[in-house]
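retry 2 of 3: previous attempt timed out while embedding adenosine-5'-diphosphate. Reduced batch size to 1 and resubmitted. Inputs unchanged:
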Amino acid sequence: MTTPGLKLGCVADDFTGATDLANNLVRAGMRVVQTIGVPTQPIEAVDCVVVALKSRTAPVAEAVAHSVAAARWLRAQGAPQVYFKVCSTFDSTPQGNIGPVAQALMADAPAGAGAEFALVTPAFPENGRTVFKGHLFVGDVLLSDSPMRHHPLTPMTDANLLRVMQAQLRQAQVGLIEHRVVAQGAAAVLARIDQLRAQGVAFGIADAVGDADLRTLAAATQHLALVVAGSGLAIGIPALHGLRPSMQAAQLPPPRGTCAVVSGSCSAATHAQVADFMARGGAALAIDPLRLAAGEDLAAQALAWARPRLSAQAPVLVYATAEPEALRAVLAQLGADKAGALVEAALARVAAGLVQAGVGRLLVAGGETSGACVQALGITQLRIGPQIDPGVPWCYAAHASLEGKGLHLALKSGNFGSVDFFTRAFAQR
Ligand code: ADP
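retry 2 succeeded.
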């Protein structure tokens, strides 16, 4: 069965990156569903499906297998182009996974025009990611001078994307589509692509320093079977299908029920948001990992605390968010893995219990925490709605496990959102 009207299929290498991409497409006028892994249920009629994987740092063979399966499913639904969404800081290692996955997706695309060349650009100028002469800048500095050079899993110590990508590929060549060419428009980019193809180049790293460049690149690559990009390139795609920014694309069913926040992020922005929520008199309860480790059922206690408060219609907040000093003390005693697992399991139970208790609008803070909560809620598909803050839209899940009631969800990665996010999100209609 196909998804009628499907214009684009996306394979994202992580969960919050998928939401970021979906958010850009919705803002530019596409109706988008994000799925957790390859869907097993039919999809409603939308313009784009984003399949969220957890493949960025998975073993190469696993990342390749899951990505190819997702792309095949998208093509079977009728997607004419596959958009492989990678991180805007090109998070990867000499082993992969961007190169091997991109190569496998290209090899798996049906033979024919547009299948033997792919455009590659992580540029997203609105978020300070620009590419010039094949070098990636993060704000005002080269990627290799940014904090990304210290990333624990994917340290990025080289800003030259041609070198980075080439090291990950087997018998495939990388070339450059320079800004000088991009600035001349889509026809010049197409001519450059032809030139690169004639030289046997399979992947073209494209410069882009502004939104106009991204729109040019999107137009020039409309008929390619595969593009490899951060979420930036997406801003230029809906217009190519005659779509314009509209309230309709982001429309979700009306919200129902009460409001709650579950926060497992210890990032600076989340910390300030928790403090702001409490300073405004919001009802909040802390979860202490050391008490969890001692065997206390804090999830049950939190739900007992929350139930009477929910009827007051004001949002409740259950949080494990801790100051760096308190966090260090917990990590020293339990270790990061055990503390993380305990907190995630407890907050996921809280999220599921809150929804059972009538919460219809749930905000989750933290990337890993979001993954744990979505899993506990049994959610596999999210319709993407209006943006609350950059990178964080309201989403809607109409899943069987929710007993047909439907849930509005916002999944906020740690450092996203303004200080009053926990209050403002619920004021948005
Ligand atoms: P972010 O998006 O800010 O990185 P995540 O949810 O991805 O947030 O990661 C935060 C991790 O820290 C989670 O595994 C969470 O369970 C864990 N965590 C949250 N609070 C505490 C705490 N007080 N002590 C130890 N670990 C915690």
